[in-house]
């Protein structure tokens, strides 16, 4: 399948051939769902923690005599029924991540790319090079191109001036090809790939 190539000045710069194995698949919602869950679970900090009765600092003396008070038998102020006591079965630091086969992750990325191509939300840029790191000028160029919410993926390295100019534009994220992922692709309206990114993707999936 073919796609038009455009420049940052919204001018045509020829066409490029897209691989059917990467951009021509019928998107599967179940694969995309599994991959998004995997990514979001992996990024959870899992640092919430509460103290149980063994970690509470309190006197270990018996609170009151065993018999004759008419009250329940208590030997410590540490249980959770008392103010300042330990939490029973409270959360502890844990890892929320789970495993997903490498082949499933690779396939999910292909389906995410195919979903953007099928929805005509894939744009191919000639390059992401700008002379000056001027946010206002780059924002004007993005408006001409129709970039509202966009994920821009460049080659192995993103030009410094372009990264500096784009980092303060709302709803626009810039990544090198190593950082491309399913969640970021799906949460942006447009996926913008440079020709260098396309070459890297084709080499990755060979």
From TrEMBL:
GO terms for biological process: translation. Belongs to the universal ribosomal protein uL4 family. Signal peptide: none annotated. Residues 65-76 have a biased composition (Basic residues). Part of the 50S ribosomal subunit. Keywords: Ribonucleoprotein, Ribosomal protein, RNA-binding, rRNA-binding. The lineage of its organism: Bacteria, Pseudomonadati, Pseudomonadota, Alphaproteobacteria, Hyphomicrobiales. It comes from the Bacteria. SUPFAM superfamilies: Ribosomal protein L4 (SSF52166). The keyword Kinase does not apply. Pfam families: Ribosomal_L4. Forms part of the polypeptide exit tunnel. One of the primary rRNA binding proteins, this protein initially binds near the 5'-end of the 23S rRNA. It is important during the early stages of 50S assembly. It makes multiple contacts with different domains of the 23S rRNA in the assembled 50S subunit and ribosome. One of its GO terms (molecular function) is structural constituent of ribosome. One of its GO terms (cellular component) is ribosome. Residues 65-84 are annotated as: Disordered. It comes from Methyloceanibacter caenitepidi. This is Large ribosomal subunit protein uL4.
């Amino acid at each position: 399948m073919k796609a038009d190539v455009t420049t940052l000045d919204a001018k045509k710069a020829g066409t490029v051939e897209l691989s059917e194995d990467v951009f021509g698949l019928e998107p599967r919602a179940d694969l995309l769902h599994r991959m998004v869950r995997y990514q979001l679970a992996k990024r959870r900090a899992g640092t919430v923690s509460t103290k149980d009765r063994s970690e509470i600092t309190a006197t270990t003396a018996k609170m009151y005599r065993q018999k004759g008070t008419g009250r329940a038998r208590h030997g410590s102020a540490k249980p959770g029924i008392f103010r300042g006591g330990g939490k029973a079965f409270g959360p502890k630091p844990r890892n929320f991540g789970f495993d997903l086969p490498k082949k499933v992750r690779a396939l999910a990325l292909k389906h995410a790319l195919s979903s953007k191509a099928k929805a005509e939300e894939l744009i191919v840029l000639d390059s992401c090079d700008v002379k000056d790191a001027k946010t206002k000028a780059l924002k004007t160029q993005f408006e001409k191109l129709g970039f509202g919410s966009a994920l821009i993926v460049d080659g192995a390295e993103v030009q410094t001036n372009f990264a500096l100019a784009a980092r303060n534009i709302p709803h626009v994220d810039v990544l090198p090809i190593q950082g491309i992922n399913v969640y970021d692709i799906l949460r942006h309206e447009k996926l913008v790939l440079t020709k260098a990114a396309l070459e890297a993707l084709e080499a990755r999936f060979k």
